[in-house]
Amino acid sequence: MTRVVILGRDAPLWLAACVLQAALRAAGVVVTAIELPSKLYPSDVYATLPGIEALHARLGLDERDLLRGTRGAFSLGQNIVDMLGGNPAFLNAYGGYGTAIDGADFFGYWVKGRDAGLPAGFEDFSLTAAAARQGRVMIPDEASEVYGRADYGYHLPAIAYAGGLKSVATRTGITVLSANHIAVERDETGDLIALVADGQRIAGDLFVDATGDDAALIEKTLGIAQDSWRTHFPVDRMFVARGPAFDPIPTYAELRAWHGGWTALYPGQAATHVVHAFASSLIGDEDALRGAGSASGLALSDAVLRPSDPGCRTEPWAHNCVAIGGAACALDPVHNLDLHALQLGLIALLTHFPAGADAAPSRAEYNRVMRGSFERLRDYQAAFYALAPFPGLFWHAGRAAEPPATLAHIIATFHARGELPPMEEDSIPFDHWRAMLTGLGVVPVSWPPRIDATDDAEVAAQFRRMLGFVKDAVSRQPTHAQALGHG
User: Fold this and answer.
1) pLDDT tens for residues 223-237?
2) pTM score of the predicted model
3) Domain assignment present for 103
């Protein structure tokens, strides 16, 4: 397969085009990108997990130029705040928590210490959480890598980010076309053989559907349905909006629980982007929009109402068409994982890109891997609603919903002994799971027996050394303004 045609819009189109071009050009693969009209609004934002940094580096994107061009910001995680009262906030930070003791994972020692009255919270042992609380950006170095991972992501205003990726695509020799109307040609087997973009015919061997919830090729052409995850998620509508930038700019996102749903704030240099998610059965659109202003504490503008209907394609790759991003899987808006899901699809496509004419084995493996990857993201998102301790009908509905069987197993195992069962295709790091589960009140009642072999006094000394290292390391880090080149 030497001709790849990508149909889509916005960041999914351009990220797919740039990644496939960079990885496959040496093998003689020619990439054509067909751009549909944008669906983005000034209020849209992409929140990224740390893994996007390596992908940007592969594409030659300079971090400083990226943040300057998009007016984006660093993010060290997500702060969860109960606006209804009674539950302490916790920061689900990127990177690692603590460092190994006596060759064993830190978390079991923390669980045992907490059971014995240890006053330090789990996030106190995180370099990134401590930096975020102090308005600093934790830049990884040799010392911090020995201690544990110190990662960060970004908040990237979507229009500017997509524009920057398009510039990269055009500079790297990708054939770029724009179209308002698309016709599809298929052969007798049902495979796609060409797209006709505003009258111009573009033939291909492999077609990538990056059209988001339009699913123009995978669903509207090939008829591949979406398995609904509706029963696991109480959110069915959301507003995206923006308000004034904070000064200083926080180095984390914040999710605020309110009586009708939740409000997420994604700080940037030029604006604070807001996602306000709710259940239409419990609150009307106008009241929800007023609630967004109240919960965010900001004067909002550019508000756009969108549906939320989570689910996954039964076959993300059908015939010779591969769906990525929103065309393959519609995620719940919590944690803003859409760009992460897109990245997982691109990595899997490169891993299983067919070397010969017979794509069936690659297609079968891609579908298996991506179904598993999407379901693990579903579990992580559903855990938030299943465990959230906040009062009100919305949160009661989330707790009352039957969790996926895999999630029920994860929660039960974690509660029993503080361990997470290894799940194939899970792209969420264990410490990220641990921070969320403990923050939402799941307290392990035991720990692995190996933990008891280490002397308690030695463990206490190790805890003191860790907390001292975190304090000293964070004090040397730049403020967010300095990291953005403002001071």
Assistant:
1) 999 999 999 999 999
2) 0.96
3) yes
